[in-house]
Structure prediction request, 563 residues.
Amino acid sequence: MLPIGNLMLDASAGPVRRRFNHLCRSPADTQQALLSAILHENADTVFGKRHGFSAITTFRQYQQRVPLASYEDLEPYITAAMKGEPNQLTTSAPLLYTTTSGTTGKSKFIPVTQRGRSRKAHLMWLWLSAMRRDHPAMTNGKILSVVSPAVESHTPDGTPTGAESGHTYRNMPAAVRWMYSAPYEVFTVDDYEAKYYALLRLAAGQDISCIATANPSTVVLLAERLGKHTEQIIRDVRDGTFSADFAIPASMRAELRLHPDPERAGHLERAAALSDGVLRPGLAWPKLAAIGCWKGGTVTSYLTQFETYFPQRPPVRDLGYLATELSGSVPLTDDGDAGVAAVGTNVVEFRPAYEEGTPEGSDLIPLERLEVGQRYFIYVTTVSGLYRYDMNDIIEVTGRHENTPLIRFVQKGKGVVSFTGEKLYEIQVIAAVDEALAALRGRYLFIAALAEWVGGLPRLTFLIEFDADITDQDGTVLADRLDAALGYQNAEYHSKRASLRYGAPVLRVVRPGELDRYRRRRVESGCPDGQFKVLRLTTDASFAEQFESDRDLAGDGGHRVIA
Prediction:
């Protein structure tokens, strides 16, 4: 007999997908209906009165009367609401304020209302139902997921601030909660290493059939820690214990109610024996049917490491365009990293990515007019109180589902440098890295480019951490390959290098373990696990200063100088 969670998924799958497809057939009508509902519900708010929501009846009027907004524009309303002043951005009081990761600036507090959370949860249910349709074995075992704590602090009026992923996980219906390998309380463990050990200790004692967490770097981290703690995990599974080496509260240890499982431990021993005594997740969990995580944007280098950890090569489905501010798309197949724009969840507007300067709010493009193959900046209006909010994200349209665009996240808008007019984009740097280091996939843990001025010339310094030492000769060859690949990706870069107006790139070899230490510092300082990212292109020298390095290597184009 199927567990009740599977029955619920299967029973709702058809109606949920049919309803979504219906909305996608008429995106303009769907967006107008959603906008009208948002304006009507919030007409009596401070923001709604100031901008005349009650008199707005069309999308065009909305564009003409409501200005584009940054976080700084909405922050006074958010601050007032956090102090308990009602009806600021929404008539419904926020039940949570989610915090951004602060990748490109200070952390922001984004309101989430009950209606907003419900719409996002509905979108995730759609993703799950489509995933189970294509990979029914994904729910034959448990789902291993990683979320951040739902409550990190409270606002002056007592509303919690924290991660929406944790809030959703914590409030799952009991019929669905059984599908996951760990109770929510594990994610509240303060100690970084202890939390991950607890997750893996519990998962190792179960059949995991799906791993779902937004950032593939988290999947790699889990795989690395599983191997690192192989002996302890097997011993704990056999004895029904939890290693005293990790700072887990005694009350939580008691609540986990672990039992000896020699049979499971024997399976893990045999799995480790197949991989030189080191547990690999694909061998520990041979029934793993699918992985859900991001596949595009700036995280693709982590996906190349999956082959090492998952020899059965399970299908990987993108989780969609997700940010603190919105759930922007829902992928319905394993193909690529694009998903169907969340047409019934957010009202979205766009401007072409190639346009410069300050946009006119009345000129933004509605969803239905997007062109396949083009890239755009995105602005979002949500039911939780963001109005024409500048996401500073670039998305690309890759096709259509019914009549609604398929979109993929490309990069943050700030991920561009232009010292000499080259307009070098983060996505171009990533493409150059993929080309130049193709033979080394899986051998480097991260790579990031710092654009800086050195000796009167701009140059790119690539911070890179290898899993084994690299010779100076190999490093200079890689630097030359990067130089050539960058020129292929960006004609202006090539031109500036040829005319000696741009310095040769340098490879800065980062010491082993630096990425892991950086991630730990970020998470312990409040960055949600799922939002952890490494900037792939930046002009912020302080970012590079957080990584200790051994040496700098230049290619022949830089006269093989060790900087």
Notes: The CA atoms of residues 373 and 409 lie 13 Å apart. The chain is about 40% helix and 20% strand. The chain has three domains: 4-115+320-412, 136-314, 416-558. The longest strand covers residues 389-401.
